[in-house]
User: Fold these one by one.
Assistant:
Number 1:
Amino acid sequence: MTGPIDPPPRLLMGPGPVNADPRVLRAMSAQLVGQYDPWMTATMTETMGLYREVFRTDNEQTFVVDGTSRAAIEAALVSLVEPGDRVLVPVFGRFGHLLVEIAQRCGAEVHTIEVPWGEVFAPEVVEDAVRATRPKVLAVVQGDTSTTMCQPLADLGEICRRHDVLLYCDATASLGGNAFEHDAWGLDLSTAGLQKCLGGPSGSAPITIGPRAVEVIDRRLHVETGIRDDDDETGPGGRIRSNYLDLAQVMAYWGPRRLNHHTEATTMLYGARECARLLVEEGLDAAVARHERHGRAMLAGVRGLGLAVFGDVAHKMHNVVAVEIPDGVDGDRARAGLLDDFGIEIGTSFGPLHGRVWRIGTMGHNARKDAVLVTLAALEQVLRASGASVTAGGGVGAAQEVYAS
Amino acid sequence: MTGPIDPPPRLLMGPGPVNADPRVLRAMSAQLVGQYDPWMTATMTETMGLYREVFRTDNEQTFVVDGTSRAAIEAALVSLVEPGDRVLVPVFGRFGHLLVEIAQRCGAEVHTIEVPWGEVFAPEVVEDAVRATRPKVLAVVQGDTSTTMCQPLADLGEICRRHDVLLYCDATASLGGNAFEHDAWGLDLSTAGLQKCLGGPSGSAPITIGPRAVEVIDRRLHVETGIRDDDDETGPGGRIRSNYLDLAQVMAYWGPRRLNHHTEATTMLYGARECARLLVEEGLDAAVARHERHGRAMLAGVRGLGLAVFGDVAHKMHNVVAVEIPDGVDGDRARAGLLDDFGIEIGTSFGPLHGRVWRIGTMGHNARKDAVLVTLAALEQVLRASGASVTAGGGVGAAQEVYAS
């Protein structure tokens, strides 16, 4: 007979998902209440307020989508984009390609610009492309874990306003660990996930939608058959191709109308609420500073071990670093050794970097000193056993210097 | 400062969601492991095996979709249906209309047949419609909570084989509490949710896909940009319009290829696994018998209170009953009294039944004697306070007779 779940203890120091904050898991063990219980709707409203602080926005339409981070990406794109609409995607890693893929499936005419992996875009390059393609939506990733790069966004908001383009940002990997200013930067729609810097499990995806995007989406409202009233008008925009990810209906579900849509994933909502609550309690600036500090310690540490770092470090996200696998070391075997003997997971990589770099994360609950030092200490042992030349104590020593400064 | 979550105690006796089994919530408090950790992939494989037993199928492709039950419905339809394909939906309640809505958004040419609320379809009526419309897919709800009806399915499988039609079933509200035989009944694709008879929270949706449906879906495989290899062929079928709910890719993610797709909602997976494990431990037949017994006690109880029951009781699901609100009683006020004073939730209703019936559920963890008797005792008090004529002790007494027999 199969027994209850009993996962092995793991310290997850890859590019995410990482260990959930135990307080988030405790919140998720609370018992359910009914979907329209006054306490439940009040909790939904409270969660909206907490995520406004996380996204740094006044957007009324701030809530969570019941799926993983890519569900929210698709919700954003399928709700904004009608077939034939032009979408521009600056691609600087795997997740830019994902935006392309999703936008294509929504029926968009997708245009891309690319920089080599390990770089980000200068704003004038993006503006030139906006001028050339005149898109309805500019869709951009903030932090792409595949390359560790963090695209500066502040100028893009201004460019989009100037050219009357909607700016969508996928902040899944960056939110909570890197500066993010939805309103100040002029973003129109942003989405995230819990499993990176927010310190929760995957499965609920925070989203915020500004007034310009709300207007576009609300024009497409079509209340579903089965619960539509005779006086429900259909908006003049084309019906959204998805029902589950239809943000026009989902906004009406979270708003005062409480439109019946999906059955709220209550346990995930409890988790999402606790992730935001903990971040707000810590303070967003303090959380970003914590990720910066532990990311800097990890960066110094891997360099102290004699490892080279991939990409333009000036534009690296705080919460992940890509480390070149030393010549002669079997990257997958070393990772397996770290997992099997030390219970520590670090990440492999995609596409052009596959087999070339490891990705090491310091995020969410694991953006802390003991996690950084234990990882560096174990990595030193594994590298030595793999035959790499490694500075004894160099990783932990360099990280400790960062912590002492 | 907002504090940690602290929901009020509620006994959820509506049509679902209901209280989660505490064992499921405990399983969900386990810490995360990495997405491709050998323990994690083994746990995914184990979960597939458990759901084969729940769905009574040998289908290799049996897993969970990371979203609520309607995410799995949409995954099924968007993956099976190409724009212009014909879909036939027998509508006998709100959730039939939902299948229509979702199929339309997938671009299907949708045909419907309808019976009055409170009835189900005779197989020959469905076969006539299949003959007349020659659909690619017959999409049918097994148990529609809006009317409490349970559509017999065994004959539909045979009809679909005869006419070379794919049979999709939404078993969200019925699975685990009513007989369900995916293979024996000739179904091609079935989906469910955790929040009804499976005793878990909403947010993960079990699915099983038979060989005929797998073939149709696999012809549409298009590995997403960003992780596609040069030797990844695109199938001859049209690209699936959703990426998140693309079952061709999701099958490759759950299968030996372990195609990178979404980030697994690990906590929901733990919950889904525990729901199935508990059902398998109890035995599916025993679980259905338990739902039958407590459903019969509740039915006898509401009748014993002098209340009339809506619909064709011979075709009622075991796990929910629709009760006519007595003349002169304000249905919403009585429900509010039950919630506020007794902590017990029963359900309101949709469409033609709104304001006419309450829906009372006995499902999952709440398909048990104390939950039935407490609900009947409290309902008696609330009815009396609302001015209805009610038989003192009649509800609990009638239920006790069922339990004694």
Number 2:
Amino acid sequence: MKNKRVFTTSCRVLYGDTDAGGVVYYAHFLRYFEKARTELMRQWVCSYREIEAIGLIMPVTECFARYKASAFYDDLLTIETEVCNLRKYTCQFNYRIIRQDDTRIKPTLLVKGYTIHAAVNQVGKLTKLPEEIMEKLRSLTTPDNTTVPEQND
Amino acid sequence: MKNKRVFTTSCRVLYGDTDAGGVVYYAHFLRYFEKARTELMRQWVCSYREIEAIGLIMPVTECFARYKASAFYDDLLTIETEVCNLRKYTCQFNYRIIRQDDTRIKPTLLVKGYTIHAAVNQVGKLTKLPEEIMEKLRSLTTPDNTTVPEQND
Amino acid sequence: MKNKRVFTTSCRVLYGDTDAGGVVYYAHFLRYFEKARTELMRQWVCSYREIEAIGLIMPVTECFARYKASAFYDDLLTIETEVCNLRKYTCQFNYRIIRQDDTRIKPTLLVKGYTIHAAVNQVGKLTKLPEEIMEKLRSLTTPDNTTVPEQND
Amino acid sequence: MKNKRVFTTSCRVLYGDTDAGGVVYYAHFLRYFEKARTELMRQWVCSYREIEAIGLIMPVTECFARYKASAFYDDLLTIETEVCNLRKYTCQFNYRIIRQDDTRIKPTLLVKGYTIHAAVNQVGKLTKLPEEIMEKLRSLTTPDNTTVPEQND
């Protein structure tokens, strides 16, 4: 994620996000993904509410996460998000969740993953997003993005 | 809960229900409450889907829980539920969550609580449930139920 | 909540917080309560991590919520929190969750509730919090707080 | 999933599992995955509690889900699970979530996915599971399983 169109937001780990292993439960990272892409959309494209208002929804059709290190209660996490693989009816968001840690020189990459979304209308038919929204999404993507996060980072 | 109209169901504690304290997170018991009242309704009254189908919903207007002992990962919990305080537009469910424990003579009461629900139509106006449903609910209630679970049990 | 020791924080409603009724699921407000009291503690008393570091935990022994109006996807909520009923081993937090709404003159009160917490050591025995922490908590409480939020507001 | 070592369990969709789109929120399927693999382990290998009791944990290192159709409130879902790709320190579970639908001849595949788990000790070091457990897991796997669920089914 070296391109300049990376959106950054943060979130604090609640007790309710952790499990008896003392770390964030694996499903909760998908909530962090949602928080990050929602904020990216609101600030750079349009709010998801506006998409719903024109009769479209963008359900997740695929998601992936690789867990590299644990997140703990009260950690302040940074989520980096970028848009890629914009197609006629679908687009992808890539995520990197990082813990800022004052005691180490390098921040720790905890999770990387992606979600793919399809634009559909109210009866579930694939539908193109309005050109105005597509244009904004297009301006955020880079040509060389790959679908699946690479294994080595 | 000595009356005979107590509905009993069970649920197994998932890792995802626990928190870093090693016990079930306090908000998750409200999910167990939901599971229990849904099953009671389905088996003894009518499914909640049928209530939605006639244009009514029954949102929670109040909930209460007293936490007496912890529930742990993989515990098999019993949830006892009863209907009480049936009024024109509202009704109450009382819950007791118990851990069956082979190594002790007595099961352990973990949580007791209640939820109060109002019947409203699609514009949020208080609306009477159909008499057929009210009749079934009435048959499940006992005159001497009190609103708030007593402190001593 | 007219006293000046009210702590204010905010949170944005995720899709993952809502349910098929189109509104925030009732159990999720307990997560918002947690977020609010955690931030109050961090900023005004000490972080919950520091309490754990001295071998104490503060489990919820009781919680209550009254739901007055619905919260919707993407709402920006304000959570007002105050400490009250400080006792030897227990304390209470009161919460008010409010939606700021530009189109109305008055903000809308959605939920009010409380949680009661006990300080216990690692074997579950009631234990007094360190005097330094008690002193800070004491400075936040007002004598006339009542345990249960009043019905009329 | 044509081999005979497919474990089948079921779960009912709670209101708390759904979102404002009227369908199950994408992260909740990971909870259903957990429920399914936990039950498979308990019935065919050993309970996860027993693994913890010997000082090992099996965190998720990778997860994937492809969402093909929506699950709705109150749906009774079937989860098919199988073990595959058993390696020295890791193993994989494949899942298929299906809705039984009385009104259709064929059940509907809603979600397929997998999780990969690593066995680690209490300081996070990769550790081999006891041979007794490995033997049981081995007996459940088939040689031709592939890591990533195929796109066509």
Number 3:
Amino acid sequence: MDERNDLILNIQKQFPKLSKGQKRIAQFIIENYEKAAFMTASKLGMETSVSESTVVRFANNLGFEGYPQLQRALQDIIKTKLTTVQRVDMGKEYSTDLEIVERIMKSDMDNMRHTIEMINAAKIETVIDMILNAERIYVLGLRSSKSLADFLGFYLGLILGNVVLVGHGISDIYEQMLRISDKDLLIGLSFPRYSSRSIEVTRYAKEQGAKIVAITDSEISPIANMADEYLTAKSNMASFVDSLVAPLSLLNALIVAIGMREKSDIKEHFNKLETIWEKYKIYDGDY
Amino acid sequence: MDERNDLILNIQKQFPKLSKGQKRIAQFIIENYEKAAFMTASKLGMETSVSESTVVRFANNLGFEGYPQLQRALQDIIKTKLTTVQRVDMGKEYSTDLEIVERIMKSDMDNMRHTIEMINAAKIETVIDMILNAERIYVLGLRSSKSLADFLGFYLGLILGNVVLVGHGISDIYEQMLRISDKDLLIGLSFPRYSSRSIEVTRYAKEQGAKIVAITDSEISPIANMADEYLTAKSNMASFVDSLVAPLSLLNALIVAIGMREKSDIKEHFNKLETIWEKYKIYDGDY
Amino acid sequence: MDERNDLILNIQKQFPKLSKGQKRIAQFIIENYEKAAFMTASKLGMETSVSESTVVRFANNLGFEGYPQLQRALQDIIKTKLTTVQRVDMGKEYSTDLEIVERIMKSDMDNMRHTIEMINAAKIETVIDMILNAERIYVLGLRSSKSLADFLGFYLGLILGNVVLVGHGISDIYEQMLRISDKDLLIGLSFPRYSSRSIEVTRYAKEQGAKIVAITDSEISPIANMADEYLTAKSNMASFVDSLVAPLSLLNALIVAIGMREKSDIKEHFNKLETIWEKYKIYDGDY
Amino acid sequence: MDERNDLILNIQKQFPKLSKGQKRIAQFIIENYEKAAFMTASKLGMETSVSESTVVRFANNLGFEGYPQLQRALQDIIKTKLTTVQRVDMGKEYSTDLEIVERIMKSDMDNMRHTIEMINAAKIETVIDMILNAERIYVLGLRSSKSLADFLGFYLGLILGNVVLVGHGISDIYEQMLRISDKDLLIGLSFPRYSSRSIEVTRYAKEQGAKIVAITDSEISPIANMADEYLTAKSNMASFVDSLVAPLSLLNALIVAIGMREKSDIKEHFNKLETIWEKYKIYDGDY
């Protein structure tokens, strides 16, 4: 991965052309990019004794539409390098429970907004086609992505039937994927910090000829690189918790879209389930 | 449950005072509230041959700030009665994959906005205090709420250590809760359609003297009624999938707030984990 | 269930023809059959002031080959009625850890011996044919039978591929069995005390037209009654632990016999797995 | 591991003193020990043109009580080297399902007999003391040993309460063992082929100061080497299935012995559970 070097190199390359104030920004970022990535334009301005609009022009000069885009690029670089310990420290300036809760939830909303903006109609359609055309669909998600995998596996299983959720029970992932072939699809869910095991298993599936769909946080994630197609959703690095709110919403939406394509089938399944649920009183009847 | 009757009764009570057009709206809602709950103000106007602004005034006359609030009240009533089959039909007017995906994700954002608005500082603090003061914390979530429970149990377990995630493995929930007592806390996660089993287990915990915190969708949910304290997050009924995006974001935020209270402890834990993760190459090192 | 009445009625019917000493035995058994079922012939003789050989003749008069057969019949009657609390008390006369360990393990060996004696070549072949001919094989085992189901599901999955282990993860058993049909097979594992849920689920599978194979403790168990074919293995009631040693050995043997029928296939699978295991260092290389 | 060399070296050392016929046996074993380990004395005699009694004397000369002991030593050497593929081939000479089933189950009985013979009263007592004195008990078993771990964890959890079954759910083993300390105990279950991960995790627990109890197949297994105390049970290598019948029986017995020490406690727990089981109809009432 040399993305970091790319941005930093670019800053160094532009350096001679920059104004005096912008040079101070550049210097600060090169030396403190991990800190800079979490400063507002105004704070970065204060730190380097320039106006906020100078900071914005600096971002423009580097080819970014605005400061938020530069900031995001900086965050993307360091994101996967931040340890949980550093992430605990990031929350330090908030004093009340309420402030923390509101900050985290608003950050989740930002991630969702960002995720919706990135949606690409063609990619969505390709992914759904790949899912509907696969002979078997393997769903992979480890560590914090496991609850995403459980959710996706549960609903895809209801709609489609030919779904295998790997990484459960007494057998190993490879044993569960023993028969994966070029007619099959692996849906890999992987968000920072990327699990080594998920990457390894995805590589194995690819070697067996299976198609790969990645659900991940960026087009440069290790699993996206191996995928035939990928969808991205922003995960949250604003705390020591891996926030998977936007990814969950994307999965929600994907499941519903698949369901709409298989509508008569799933109505039949749900009719059957409703009968069972009522017979065995699975849901509370008074509500 | 008499909430439905309350709203319908209120409409009937206001009926004499309403304008001719508003009476047609009232009539239509009383007879078709399940349909009305999903119409826009303009569609409801067309259906009853009144203007959109008449619909809005009708909502105001019933004491609602606007039509969206009336609509939400109608949706709340019927929410838990909609079967999955009806919910599949609700998606019918959308034609492209993209439209569906965007609609679902925007609906998740609405839920999040609504959830943030409902946040109550005192409740948050009480819940965190209850969690930090419990001798043991039992985390309960079944069916689609199980992935929420997994997520909460995982992080609370990292931070606190005295956490039991029930409903896993070969033992039954009651066997796992054999020793629950009045020094312990049960955190019950329950969203529509409410699992009968979750209600039953929560009642059992209460009978054993345990404190109850409910994380649920409304103050009138069955599990909120039994709880010593509760937090609410909007779940989604816009499709056959139980959307738990806003609840997941609330849990995220809650976990971070708890972590901030126990900051030195969790830094120590994470320091230890980082060493282990590096030693066993749990995370991808190139990213 | 009138098995109890049958044996007791039979004793009462034979009563007039019995010798004086045998009458005392009969009386004692009728009044204390739950106690008698766990006495040796010699102890029962002492209790009723007769010789051990009188006890044996008494068993013969009732049509049993010997005392062990009578005793087993008594145990079968009460087996499923004994609560765990009674079963804890059954261990009372043993004083050292060693005595307990040896008693339990010897009792497991007796169960195995008994199980091997009951093996029926035709039943074994039928069960294997049913397994190899099914389109999908669902494996069901709940509560203490769940570890048996995990074991069977794991190895059948390796050999055959079309295996679904139900009762795991976030979906409900019925959701996992949504598509079960008359081309499919349910293997139900059920040992005393019989789980109500297992019986209910097996009934559901039968209603959907699926074939049923029961692996259970006796031909009169509830699940055997519903099965197209069944195999029996003795479970242990000598303690509060449900001993599933003989059932596990039967599953072992069944899996190997299926493997031998599919030999070239499984060699191919294992060749592939050995390569993976070596590549990822799954097994310790020094041993 | 040089056990193999030890036995082979010993044969080579004794070689000069052996009779002509015994020399042929020695030669054959050195060159074909993997084959010899599964021959009867009579077959080995035929292969090397000596009488069966010469084979027995050969075993005696090497210091073994009889041929079975020599054979077992040979089997122990190669056991962990046999791949699943070789183990599939080992079943080749059996033609009917019944023969296979009986052979496997009898081999399980042999393992149990062998295991009972090896029981050591002092070790049993030490292990039970260690279990009862630990602050927390972590139960570890991976791959095929996982169903053993589930079983042990389930019952120990009922009896003792302070039990953590690791290797489940979305968190990693190390995260579940984050707080393990020198007041705690790890019970490691490990049978051939030994999982590398289990060895690694046991080493980690030891480094944290925890006491280690190994339940394994021999005193020279990797996990026994790290343990403060260990118990052995014979596992089966007669097929491609890891037979864990004797280990399961040993766990059964161990659980009952622990239960007898905590008798009044577990009666109280079971009384409570019986009430719950009846209330929620967990067990079938007709049986």
